[in-house]
UniProtKB/TrEMBL annotation:
Comp. bias regions, Polar residues: 541-551
Superkingdom of source: Eukaryota
Any single GO BP term: Ras protein signal transduction
Bias kind Low complexity: ranges: 531-540, 587-620
Lineage: Eukaryota, Metazoa, Chordata, Craniata, Vertebrata
Cited InterPro entries: RA_dom, Ras-like_GEF, Ras-like_Gua-exchang_fac_N, Ras_G-nucl-exch_fac_CS, Ras_GEF_dom_sf, RASGEF_cat_dom, RASGEF_cat_dom_sf, Ubiquitin-like_domsf
Residues of the Ras-GEF domain: 223-492
Domain Ras-associating: 638-724
Record region (Disordered): 518-630
Record field: transmembrane: none
Name of the protein this chain belongs to: RGL1 protein
N-terminal Ras-GEF domain span: 56-187
Record's keyword terms, sorted: Guanine-nucleotide releasing factor
Any GO CC annotation of this UniProt entry: plasma membrane
Length: 724
């Protein structure tokens, strides 16, 4: 089988990509083979006759909403078999369920008024049966894949409209019964706010219970694998509830608007859990002032072992949350405490951190996630013998139980990719047509999320109410509190007597592990800045963040932790995806500007090369070559992505903006104002400058071309500042 690009076909209100599929259907003509000297019925090679059949595959590239909905009924005829799934997974970015349902049922689902293909010209029983079958197929797929689209309490207008259509056109059908049952199910359920583990830390507390700082003895009483299993149980419950379309960049990016405070609750719930784990780690390490150095080091060791257990369970969400907490400023700076962490555990910590290395746009974590997405058990490999033996022993215990495991991903990876796609690709193309190629690209990411959600059904975990109640009771320290307690703990540790030889040996060992050098340079200590009201978690490029562990302070579920910068190369360019916290503007999970801590917490959205955006290898017509998309920190093909933050806010609160070589200062300033939910008409009141270094900025003349005027040798970070 071979494929050939057949160009484009343009119809009224739609543009199609055409691919010619050539299939060999017969290799030889057997009749008369003996007369031509063949043995039996086989022809000699020189007389072989090959016959081919060529078929045309049409995949809609862009169209009006009416054409896209009509294509739901014709996609199978055009051999575009994935179209229905792609449309249902992404249509919320450009239409509402009611608009689609009305077009499907009223315009194309009524034989008397339908203009759908041949059906409009034929008034026969056969054509009616064909149309009913097509409508039923689309509705069945809709209910199978996106039943939540019809959850509209208290009126359920779409579901009632669908039920009325089925009663009139498909009475007593299985579809009618199914819709009736779904309506009863929704009506009998209370309006679902994501409950359980997704509320505030105190949610689910019994009457009279209060938040408390962790008791080290109580925490130590929980076995490492029990803690990991319970964190995985909570993560699985939340991840399975994630509504995939909530992850779309065009939807997630709108969450900071006042009217959207309840937007994408399933994503917010996952973020809340991630941050709760991170804060729990910090509270258990710093919450008790009376702890001795060795006791505090033991708690750090315990959390590293728990992270390792999460790795065995393929829970990359809690694994990353724990690693990010250990890399936060308040924990990382406890250099004396880290000296008492055993060598084997430190090596394990380093290996776990390397999973989230930002090298080559987080290639390690991406490949590992896809490798283990559908595997029954974790694929563990350790360079250290003791850790390898321990890992294999724990893994063998899991296998002996005969229970398969799913995979819980770090959701920031997908949020970031989707946000970058949303930033780089236009919603509409020439003629005002909806760009459906963009939706096909987005579906490649959505499909991965769905695959992982399906794999989570393999988990067989039982909740431990004792641990869950303990976890919910934990009072989380603020950034200021944790920093203050960290300073106190380190000051107390410095009073302990360490021989110069012992101290030198310890420092050299830990510096080698953390920095890969023989000189330990502790991070510069700076009191954490207070978070601005209304800020948004390291709003990474509207999609990704670029640092370690910065969280959204604009929402109650998002906590803020300032990660430490890597002392190795503080000015090193960060790829757009090195976000390290949870909750970026359009989907990653927080971040900080330009710093990158080893094994940081977030995943890439799009890096400094085109590989950051998933390649178009599924859900689209074969044979079409992917186009290089604009990325952060690199100018290519006359476009790039810059990050713009507001003056006076944290550096990590920024928006990503796509610019081309035609954009001038007023255009870019207006888009930046829109992204930050400000009045776009106030362009003349603001100035846009590029950050060159801590003490240098590049100012632009009023009508300057931003693309050609910017400094391309530093990070593409800009500040929008109100004029004096």
């Amino acid at each position: 089988t071979t494929f050939q690009d057949g160009g484009e076909e343009v119809e009224d209100g739609a543009v199609y990509n055409v691919t010619l599929k050539k299939v060999q259907i017969q290799q030889a003509a057997n009749k008369g083979a003996r007369w031509l000297g063949g043995e039996g019925d086989q022809l000699p090679p020189e007389h072989t006759v090959r016959q081919y059949e060529t078929s045309k595959i049409r995949a809609i590239k862009a169209g009006t909403l009416e054409k896209l909905v009509e294509n739901l009924l014709t996609a199978f005829g055009d051999a575009d078999f994935s179209y229905i799934s792609i449309f249902l997974a992404t249509y919320r970015a450009f239409a509402s369920p009611r608009a689609v349902l009305e077009l499907l049922l009223d315009r194309f689902g009524n034989l008397e008024t339908s203009s759908h293909g041949e059906v409009a010209n034929l008034n026969s029983l056969e054509s009616e049966m064909v149309l009913r079958a097509e409508i039923a197929s689309v509705l069945r797929a809709w209910l199978d894949q996106c039943a939540e689209d019809f959850r509209e309490p208290p009126d359920y207008m779409c579901l009632l409209k669908l039920l009325d259509y089925l009663k009139n056109n498909m009475p007593n059908s299985d579809m009618e019964s199914r819709v009736q049952n779904l309506l009863k199910q929704f009506q009998n359920q209370e309006v679902e706010a994501v409950d359980g583990f997704c509320g505030t830390p105190s949610s689910g507390l019994a009457d009279g219970e209060e938040l408390e700082i962790s008791n080290p003895e109580e925490f130590s009483s929980f076995q490492d694998h029990v803690v990991a299993e319970q964190l995985t149980y909570m993560d699985v419950m939340l991840f399975r509830r994630v509504v995939p379309y909530h992850c779309l960049g065009s939807i997630w990016s709108q969450r900071d608007k006042k009217e959207n405070k309840n937007l994408a609750p399933t994503i917010r719930a996952t973020i809340t859990q991630f941050n709760a784990v991170t804060k729990c780690v910090i509270s258990t390490i710093l919450g008790t002032r009376e702890l001795k150095i060795q006791q505090r080091a033991k708690i750090i060791e315990k959390w590293i072992n728990i992270a390792h257990e999460c790795r065995i369970l393929k829970n990359f969400s809690s694994l990353r949350a724990i690693i990010s907490a250990l890399q936060s400023n308040s924990i990382y700076r406890l250099k004396t405490t880290w000296m008492f962490v055993s060598k084997d555990v430190l090596l394990m910590y380093e290996e776990l951190s390397e999973i989230f290395s930002d090298h080559d746009n987080y290639l390690t974590s991406r490949e590992l996630l896809m490798k283990e997405a559908t595997s029954k058990f974790a694929n563990l490999d350790s360079s250290e013998k003791e850790n390898q033996k321990k890992s294999q022993k724990r893994l063998q215990l899991q296998k002996n139980k005969g229970v398969m495991q799913g995979t819980v991903p770090y959701l920031g990876t997908f949020l970031t990719d989707l946000i970058m796609l949303d930033t780089a690709l236009q919603d509409y193309v020439e003629g005002g047509l909806i760009n459906f190629e963009k939706r096909r690209r987005e579906f490649e990411v959505i499909a991965q999320i769905k695959l992982l959600q399906s794999s989570c059904n393999s988990y067989c975990l039982i909740p431990d109410q004792k641990f869950i109640q303990w976890f919910r009771r934990q009072r989380h320290l603020t950034e200021e509190e944790s920093y203050k307690l960290s300073r106190e703990a380190e000051a107390a540790a410095d009073t302990n007597i360490l021989s110069p030889k012992s101290q030198k040996s310890m420092v050299k060992r830990i510096s080698t592990l953390f920095l890969g050098t023989d000189v330990f340079t502790p991070p510069k200590e700076q009191p954490p800045k207070s978070s601005p009201v209304g800020g948004s978690s390291g709003e990474s490029t509207d999609s990704a963040s670029v640092s370690s562990c910065e969280f959204n302070h604009s929402e109650t579920e998002d906590v803020c932790m300032t990660p430490v910068s890597s002392p190795e190369d503080p000015l090193k360019k960060s790829s757009v995806g090195s976000d390290k916290g949870y909750d970026s503007d359009k989907g990653s999970i927080g971040s900080d500007k330009g710093s990158s801590s080893k094994g940081s917490i977030c995943d890439p959205g799009s890096g400094s090369d085109s590989s950051s955006i998933p390649s178009r290898d599924s859900g689209s017509a074969p044979g079409s070559a992917p186009r290089v998309l604009p990325v952060y920190n690199r100018q290519s093909e006359g476009s790039c992505i810059i990050r713009v933050s507001m003056d006076g806010l944290r550096d990590s609160v920024y928006k990503s903006i796509l610019i081309t070589n035609q954009d001038r200062i007023p255009d870019v300033t207006q888009r930046a104002l829109l992204k930050h939910n400000l009045e776009p008409d106030a362009v003349e009141d603001y100035e846009l400058v590029q950050v060159i270094s801590e003490d240098k900025e590049l100012a632009f003349p009023r009508d300057a071309n931003v693309f050609y005027g910017m400094n391309s040798h530093v990070n593409f970070d800009f500040i929008l500042r109100k004029k004096a």
